[in-house]
# Entry
Amino acid sequence: MAERQVSRTTMGTRAITKNQFDLAADLIDLQKHMRRILTMPFRTVAVEVPVRMDSGEIEVFRGYRIQHNGARGPCKGGIRFHPDADEEEILGLATIMTWKTALLDIPFGGAKGGVQVNPRNLSTREYEAVTRVFTSRVSIVLGPYRDIPAPDMGTNAQVMAWILDEYSKRRGYTPAVVTGKPVALGGSLGRDEATGRGVMYIMQEFSNDFNIPLKNGTVVIQGFGNVGAHLARLLHEHGTKILAVSDVDGALYDKQGLDIPNLFQHAYVERKPVQEFDGGDRITNNELWSIACDWLIPAALGGVINKETNAESIACRVVVEAANSPVTPIGDKMLAEHGIPVLPDFLANAGGVVVSYFEWTQNLQQLPWSLDQVNRELLTRMTRAYRTVRDIVSERKVSWRTAAYMIALDKVAEAERLRGNH
Ligand code: NAD
# Structure
């Protein structure tokens, strides 16, 4: 079947996910009304977030909480603080959460939230104030059995602690209303590194099946935040060479492999730009894409691998989508023509939501797990989902992404039908 042609460098997450949805919906003969239900949001809440800044002026930011689908359980998804976090982008990300929770077989639906603000321009007091005002204005649709936020780009465990506090002021102590909290407030051990660890588990499976080396293999990573930095650290511990990494300000390259433990301390723990690290060559963010490697891992923004900037020059053996929607549909097609498989976002980066699920269950039961138990259960769930997708890839001769969509769409549509409304 011909892929629908969509090519804009700035293509957003919503357009990307819609295009991917259509391909799989055709393959599983999804009915027309179900296509509509599964592409539109269940509920969109848009709020204004007025905050008194340190200057004394009041600034007003736009915020959203979008619940895409809750047929399989309470809605689940992160909150992003980013200037581009508009309604289309948040809906696209909420949609990915629906497919991710279905594919990983955890009892949640999909949601996402966002505030259009650059957290780097906020003082700590302003950052907390934005979080609290946003939370109080969307709290009516949140709750442990309704909608459970988590961290995403521009937010972290501290932000989740503020959300917990703000929500609990009105409803009483409710740790299960948010995941990705500090451990001291009911967070789960292992949550911080869970997304990166989950990416690594998927890579280990793929490496075993398709003979692409992980130990002594070579990796390039775009983005050195929560996902990219933990992934780099874990891979390095397993003997993988990290040739290059980047952040928003630039990239660093060493063909012998970067000194990841010290770079992790410098860039992730101390929050300094990667290019200020003493070691490796400075390269531009664009040069990163054409480095020859085994594994190329976008772990920052959506739409970054596309026809216009880089798809033609990519020189890896496999792309692993640690970020959400980093490859545009045309980018996907070009990679396929070059024989480069793409392990899709909602399989590869699902580790975070899986451990969020463990955190939620620990909160509801008031029974914390050991780190060993968290990592063991994470491995089981990631491996199971990977194998289900792999089997469809080989049976139906479709891409990894389409196979993952076929499984997820089928599960959500079944839940919708069983609820009896359609
Ligand atoms: P983060 O804010 O911790 O880190 C983002 C990193 O990307 C930073 O190093 C930043 O400097 C870098 N970056 C931003 N713009 C860039 C650019 N133009 N070029 C190069 N680097 C750039 O965010 P995160 O939590 O690591 O999330 C990264 C991606 O992974 C997002 O797409 C997010 O939706 C996705 N994701 C995150 C989680 C999670 O648990 N944190 C789970 C699933 C998916």
In short: The longest strand covers residues 58-69. The two ends are 28 Å apart (CA to CA). Confidence is low (pLDDT under 50) at residues 1-9. Residues 151-154, 195, 222-228, 246-248, 285, 299-301, 322-324, 349, 352 surround nicotinamide-adenine-dinucleotide (CB under 6 Å).
